Model the fold of this input.
Amino acid sequence: MKSNSIESNNNNSPESSKDSGQSFLNALVLGLGNILLSDEGVGVKAVEELQNRYDFSGAVEFIDGGTMGFELLPYFEGRSDIIIIDAVKTGNAPGTIVKIDDPPGYFSSKTSPHQIGLADVLGIAAMTGDLPRNISLFGIEPKQLSTGLQLSEEVARNLSQLIDMVADELKAIGIKVQPKNKQLS
Done:
């Protein structure tokens, strides 16, 4: 289930893509989850903290996807890369961070409302040719999904590492990432 790089299975060749074969970078970082259900809101909180901690080049957009479903479809159009951050149930210990190598496959078998909606959005994006060339999912295993605004200790402890991993992924795809509070090393 884990991987270091993702290639989507859309059939967009350079000749058929909307950018007429020109290389472009237009990334989306999508945080998912319900902030009212403790660890379920980790994706939304991670996107917020990512923007608080780093400055980024103009080639990336951050979206609080909350529990949206089909409303996310317009955000997929014309993207070169999408990074999704969410709580994921993988059977690992709470707080474990994973990178899923097949987000469409992972979300198609899940049962939370936003994950079912996202599976449909990914399917439609694939059919319309709007699935980006690279799509990845960074997830963290939740401990509690009960009503509450706070993350569990296990998830909160690893949130910083998750944020840094997403920042590194953005750097790897060509986004300029600078810490806001630069400290001398």
